[in-house]
Amino acid sequence: MAKKKKAPTSNTIALNKKARHDYFIEEKFEAGLELQGWEVKSCREGKAQLTDSYVIFKGGEAWLLGARIQPLPSASTHFVTEPDRTRRLLLKRRELHKLITAVEQKGHAVVATALYWKKHLIKCEIALAKGKAKYDKRETEKERDWNRQKQRVLHTDNR
User: Fold this and answer.
1) Neighbours of 99 (CB within 10 A)
2) What is the per-residue pLDDT across 127-143, written as a single tens digit (0 to 9) for each?
3) Name one GO biological process term (predicted).
4) 30-to-71, 114, 141 alpha-carbon distances in Å
5) How many other CB atoms are found less than 10 A from the CB of residue 158?
6) Cα–Cα dist 43/64, whole Å
């Protein structure tokens, strides 16, 4: 008797919802992530956080700062587990150059927006973003509330 495969669950490991609140997302990129074995196991358990994470460029490479991958309690004792260590992002040279030139402009930043599985690999979605002012954040919130109210009215009218 053949074993049945489990139903595919969500490929998303972690989201950075705060990035959409604090920035205007201009362009998204998919980057590979250089991880250690214990980090992959922790990501399988969903122990990753991207809140307040961002990307810096040093030595012609991209590095992810502020991402937290909590080690499992069953992690081996002979590994030094650093949950907040900087991790190298794997990007194509063209994408890397595009991001570096954009960040040199005033007001632009590169933030991590999501961690997800792509087949057996962990990918990080990074976005080129421009910071929002306080009034922009309020305007976005008002628009979201208005859209929510509009959907409620349409939903009740269709019954």
Assistant:
1) 23
2) 998 887 777 778 888 88
3) trans-translation
4) 24, 10, 28
5) 6
6) 16
Question: How many Cα neighbours within 13 Å face the side chain of 57?
Answer: 15
44 vs 38: CA distance, rounded Å: 10
- Decide: pTM greater than 0.85: no
Which phi-psi region, left, alpha or beta, contains residue 84 (left: φ > 0; alpha: ψ -120 to 50)?
A: alpha
Class of domain 12-132: mainly beta
| List of residues 6+ apart from 75 with CB closer than 8 A | 38, 41, 42, 81
| All residues at 6 or more sequence positions from 13 whose CB lies less than 8 Å from its CB, including other chains | 43, 46, 48, 114, 115, 116, 117, 122
Q: Where are the domains of the chain?
A: 12-132
